[in-house]
Amino acid sequence: MAYRIKKGDKSVQAALRRIADEQVGRALGELDDDQLDFDKRIHQVRKRCKKMRGLLRLVRKSFAGYGDENEAFRDAARLLSGVRDADTLIATYDAVARHFFDQIDRRAFAPIRARLTRDAKAVRNDTRTIERMSIFRTEMEAVRHRAAGWKLEDDGFDAVAGGLGKTYRRGRKRMQDAWADPSADAMHEWRKRVKYHWYHARLLSSVNPQMMEPLVEAVDDLSDLLGDHHDLVVLDERLRDDPEGFGTATDIEAFRALIAQRQQDLADRAFAKGRLVLSERSKARVKRLHGYWNAWTGGDVEPSALLVKA
What we know:
By secondary structure, this protein is mostly helical. Helices cover 76% and strands 0% of the residues. It has helices spanning 12-31, 38-58, 66-79, 81-99, 106-125, 127-147, 158-180, 184-203, 209-241, 249-277, 282-297.
């Protein structure tokens, strides 16, 4: 089943419960799926938690249990963050080496990848990782049971308007903050808000697929740029904090210079994309999606509800 509110849902509350059951059920299935390699399983189940946090944020203004349930998914995902982070470092190293493949001698940087690979293997083989997977399963089973009784105070667009507007507004604000001071923390905060807006656009994509699907794709592209930027930050910090464990000082300095160059390129592209994706004011975007919602559900729609004021 798709990650979106459907016309067949009797209410937004029913959609919330259905999507939660689907996502948590898939997480439990993927956790035990022997057809997936270990790294993929961890990636998938953590992704389910992020999608659930996006769903909860959409209805946060109407859901009294938002705070507790959001923390439950956040804490569950953190149980497995060590495994995922270790694998992401390897993928990020490979991406840098691939991007600069015609400018570098990869043999000089081989010790970096070798160390990252050893670290990832150690995390996978750590007995605490299996214990955390067991705790994760227990937490997911408990939240799945609770989700069947989740209740919203509002229905229709009123149930999602507050969360939609707040997340989008924060995305614009965090972009402004990052533009003024493009620090690692500022870029990461911007990334998180963009990611949640992407989830919201996906959840509402059925209201007007012709208009929403290009938006979903554009926000996804922006999220990927910011995500790649953040992964580079984490890798750079890893090399900075333990340079002697990854090779010679000269080689580490050279690779960190490549990271910095790639980060700047991604940041430039993200700001260019962000100015387009987040150009609409928050009230205007919510109003426009409200118009789509009304048309989708058969309500009366004033033409002005679909227009954005200049």
